[in-house]
Amino acid sequence: QVQLVESGGGLVQAGGSLRLSCAASGSSFSINRMYWYRQAPGKQRELVAVITSAGNTNYADSVKGRFTISRDNAKNTVYLQMDSLKPEDTAVYYCNVEAWMVRVGSQSYWGQGTQVTVSS
Fold first, then answer.
1. Distance CA 39, CA 65 (A)
2. 67-118: per-residue pLDDT in tens?
3. 91/82 Cα distance (integer angstroms)
4. Which residues, 6 or more positions from 26, have their beta carbon under 8 angstroms from its beta carbon?
5. What are the two backbone dihedrals, phi and then psi, of residue 87, each rounded to the nearest 5 degrees?
6. pLDDT in the model for residue 1
């Protein structure tokens, strides 16, 4: 079992910045890919960014050049640095990890979500 705890959300003005964190804890496990998703009111959840165990990254076109995903493997933590925020970035942001555990195999786990609100 893996527990994800997110932090760093809040209210900012357009053009501002926020850094989200997602820390994984639990029994012995290893983490492969780590993701950030977001879901705005009335919209479906969308993939924002992904980072592999090797550090390779991919981003949604809507955030490319403004957001940066990174990870600290020693802390089992993934980050999302969000710069030049726009009102359309307003959403609940969720982290997700692909974890492998002995006698369990590979499973995906979700964080509780953290609210990001960007005002005009």
1. 20
2. 999 999 999 999 999 999 999 999 999 999 999 988 888 999 999 999 999 9
3. 13
4. 1, 2, 3
5. -55, -35
6. 80
